[in-house]
Structure formats: structure tokens, C-alpha cells
Amino acid sequence: MKRSLSLALGALALAAVSPAAAQTAAKPAAKPALDVHGQPFPRIPGQNLDGLRVYIRAGLKTHQAGQHDYPQFLADFSKVLTQHGAVVDGSFHAPSAAELANTDVVVMYKGDAGFMTAAQREALQAFIKRGGGIVTIHDVLCGPDPAEFASYVGGGKKHGQVNYTLEAKVPYTIVDKANPIMQGMTEMTLNDEAFYLMTWSQAPKIHVLATTVIDNTPSAKGHAGEVVPQIWTYEHTVAGGKPARAFVWMQGHNYANISNPQIEGMLLRGISWAGKHPVNELVDYKQPAPEPRPNRQ
User: Fold this and answer.
1) How far is CA 99 from the centre of its chain?
2) Are 51 and 62 in contact (CB under 8 A)?
3) Labelling 132: which of 2, 13, 124, 287 has CA 20 to 30 A away?
4) Distance (Å, whole) CA 251 – CA 65
5) Residues 69 and 61 sit within 8 Å (Cβ to Cβ)
């Protein structure tokens, strides 16, 4: 009888706990990282160590001044993402399996990422299979096998093929104005570079967010006037894996366009979405007030 009464009281106590409180109670506390002496690392002021985990895959500088400035992106966006509540890592090399194990989304801004060693390909494919997200900017999706890269992000571009407009007008037509990633985006025209002759994934297909009309430049001879997707999302599931997401913005030839407030906001929302976090998590993040520092006088 006493045992039955105890069980009943326990059930009532559990029922009185709100669902949110129950979830909080069930979530184990994060264990702090320890150094070689067994001491916890100090918490870094101004960083949200519980945020979206982003790995920036950059490359060495190519092209003319102000163009393809991959190192500057690593420097700038590591700060931008940190200020918006992300946990950021990055480098000039393809992330290893160990680095990807602690990553939600890889943001790539470097040329010809379709060229990979066997180990790099294996690590990336395993990351995608477990549901990891990818965001690519500009010519990342260029490589020797565009169909392979299209299977990762929805589209691929053949290396060595004339499939670009060079310095050109890139007018955006926003196809999906209701998509939350495109909040605040207007149908602007950038001075940048657009790609055509793309290889597209067919099963599943990309979800187009914005297109452009290929400008009449010497390199686009015979393709001027074509309407080609330039911004899109891609959702797919590798056999035996978890659903994965990719977000692609094909401009960024001229580095200054990345700091356009509309573009920066779109990239932050695309990164959040690809990492399976709320789409506005990064743009809405507010850094907490700094903790008072001890008076050393």
C-alpha cells in the first residue's frame, strides 16, 4: 500500500513539472574541456560556446585585387559569425574527419573545391551522410566532375570550361520571395560574375531562390539572355544516412559584395538553415553584456 502511494505521489510530481522544465532537467550538463593538467579552459569573453558550430573552408588569394579574397573572408566572417553567436573554426585546408565531427555546417569560399583527395572526399561524404550542412560561395562548386559536386550541393561547374560572364551585371529575380532565407532581399543588380552551363542534380532537384539573366559579355557569347539559378537550397538524403542541407550563393567574385548588408543577412540565414538551426538564429543573436572585470588597482 505504501509503495502504491509513493508511486502515485511520484507520478503527480512529474505531472506538475512543465514540459520545458522536464526537457531542461533531462538535458545533461555540458562537460568543460580540460587541458593537459586537468584544468578547465577559461570561458572566452564574447563567445557563445553553445551556438551553431561552423567550419570555414577558405583558400589562398587568387585573381585581381578585390576579387576571390578567400583569406579575407576567413578573417572577416570568423568575426561576423562569432558576433552572431556561432562557434567558429576554419582553415585553408579541407577539414579532416576529426574537425568535421564537431561541425554542424561547413561554409566554403575557395576556388575549385571539387578537386579532392580520397581522404578529403571520404570525410566530406561521411559528414553529409550524418546530416551535416554545406554552404558554398562563388566558384567552390567548380571541379573535374560537376555531377559529383552536384550530388553534394545541387549544382556543379566543370573546371576549364568557359561557363562564366567575368565582370558583368548580375540582376537578381527573386523566385521564392516567401522563403525565410530571402528576408530583406530585393531584386538588386550586382557587378560580379554569373555561371551558366551548370550540371544540376535531378533527383532531388534544387529549390531555386533567385535567378539571373546572363549578361552579354565576350565570355558568354551564345549564352547571353539565358536565365540561370544563382541562389538555391538543396535537401537530400544519402542512402542509409540522415537528411542533409546545402545553401548556395554563386556570386562573390568581387569580394565587396559579400559585405552588402542584404547579402550578409542572407548568408547568415542560409548558414543557420543549412545547419538545421532556426533560420534567424544568427541574425537575431544579441551578445550579452560583458562581465565586469575585477579592479586590479
Assistant:
1) 15
2) no
3) 287
4) 16
5) yes
pTM, full prediction? 0.86
| Structural domain includes residue 205 | yes
> Does 95 reside within a domain?
yes
206, part of any domain:
yes
Closest listed residue to residue 234, CA positions, set 128, 145, 161: 128
Q: Which string of DSSP letters, residue by residue, matches 215-228? A: P--GGGTTTTT-EE
All 3 cell numbers of residue 149?
559536386
Distance (Å, whole) CA 96 – CA 78: 19
pLDDT tens per residue, range 210-238: 999 999 999 999 999 999 999 999 999 99
Question: Residue 114's CB: how many other CB atoms inside 10 A?
Answer: 22
Q: How confident is the model at residue 38 (pLDDT cuts 50, 70, 90)?
A: confident
CA atoms within 13 A on the CB side of 255: 19
How many angstroms separate the most distant Cα atoms in the chain?
90
- Dist CA 18 CA 24 (whole Å): 10
- From the list 137, 220, 114, 213, the residue with the least C-alpha distance to 173 is 213
Element (H, E) at 42: none
Residue 250, domain CATH: 3.40.50.880
Q: E strand or H helix at 157, and its extent?
A: strand 155-158
